[in-house]
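Entry for the shared binder. Reason: the reviewer on the internal report wants the predicted structure included alongside the sequence.
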Amino acid sequence: MIRVARRYVPILTTLALVVATFVAGSLAYPNFASAGVVRNLLVDNAFLAVAAVGATFVILSGAIDLSVGSVMAFTSILIARLIEHHAVHPLAAIALSLLAGAVFGLAQGLIIDLFKLPPFLVTLAGMFFARGAAFLIHPQSIGIKHPFVANVLNDQLSLRLPFGERGVSIPITVDIAIVTIALAAVVLRSTRFGRSVHAVGDDESSALLMGLNIRATRLGVFTLSGLCSALAGIVFTLYQQSGDPAACKGFELDAIAAVVIGGTLLRGGIGSVLGTALGVLLLGLIQTIITFQGDLSSWWTRIAVGLLVLAFVALQGQLSKRDE
């Protein structure tokens, strides 16, 4: 029972920090605990949540993916170019970008598996490749003016809730993030693939002796990561209503930070999508508090995130030592 309790220490710590941060913000700033602020918190971090879901699977399997931000930018500019310059319907452009992201992730997984290369180096190369490909598609940002994007995706499909004096509009990007988190949680907890991801990350040799297909699991993880990165790029594109090849630089580090702060072990094997979602919320709350303060540089967010990651890595190290 003690071992089980230790397993949940990181995620419980993250939950406590989320609650404490929200309460502190509510006490310090009069309008912090309003429906509008919560709505903006969800909207501004929806694409990070989707990207972090893919990163959760990769880190749980004991690997890492550094191409997340570049794939998001590639997806963003690909969608914008197809819609605005080639008259492709937005739904078709979105489908093509999802396919491209999944194929890119699968290709990285194949290279890692076939040539027995470290995921860090392969995805580092993938990061440069996807970023370069994004600039080849178009060297500058492209605004999306298609009526289907503005009127249907960003307006008609928004969910309107009766909170506050004027109500709150929840855009489809938040719905996509919530559905992605829910589906990923079910996959990790209730499917053979999810259990295989945990097993491979915990001990690949033992997983092999158990008869698990290590190759299929690894390919599935990186394909899923590429798919989630592309989906995060779609959410980012809808959020900005434009495509930009220079966007999302360093975003893979934000996704990794959210995963680690959410309680997923960097060595793999232990973690959850729910914890990752809490990690994203904590990062968003820190950014919101700094914005409310007004006289602090946005770089304080990076400092706070760095300290949190360091603290959680130290916590993970202590828990691992006690389990030995």
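Summary line for the report: The chain has a mean pLDDT of 93.
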